[in-house]
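Before the break, one more example. Copy the sequence into your notebook; we will annotate it together after we see the structure.
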Amino acid sequence: MKYDQLKLDNQVCFPVYTASRLITREYQPFLSKMKITYPQYLVLLVLWETDNLTVNDIARRLLLNTNTITPLLQRMEAQGIIARKKSGDDERKVILSLTSKGKKMKKTAASIPQKLLKGLKSENLTIEDLTDLRDKLNLLIKILSEKGSKD
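Here is what the structure looks like once it is written out:
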C-alpha cells in the first residue's frame, strides 16, 4: 500500500494552517506598532463593528471558547484598550466596550488591510484571487462550523 493520502502535499489542512501562520506574520509589523497581538486585533475588529458586546458574543464571532478569549480580554483591559463591566440585566454577563484609546486605534488600523493586500499580491496572485480565496475559506468555515454544531 502506498499511503499517498498521508503525504503532506496531499493534505488540505497543511496549506490552510501554513497560510494562516504566514499571513499572521505579515500582520506583525503593523500590529507591533500598535502594541497589540493578532488575536487582540481580531477582538478590536469585532468591537469596531459593534461596541458593547458580551464576552460570549465576541467568542462566538471569533469561533473561540470563552475560556480561550478571557485571558486575552483581561490583557486588553490592562492595556486600557477595552473596559469590562457586568451587565445590568444579568450579572453573569460581562459587557466589553472600547475605551477612548481603543476607539483611537481604529484610525491607525484602517490602513492595515490595504497595506497587507498590497504586500500579498503578485504577478501570480491578484487581489481578485485573494478575494476569491477569502470567500471560499468563509464557505469552508461555515460548513465546518455547522458540522461542529451538529456533533
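The helical segments are 13-34, 38-49, 55-61, 66-78, 100-109, 112-120, 127-150. Residues 121 and 135 are 16 Å apart (CA to CA). Try to locate both features in your own notes.
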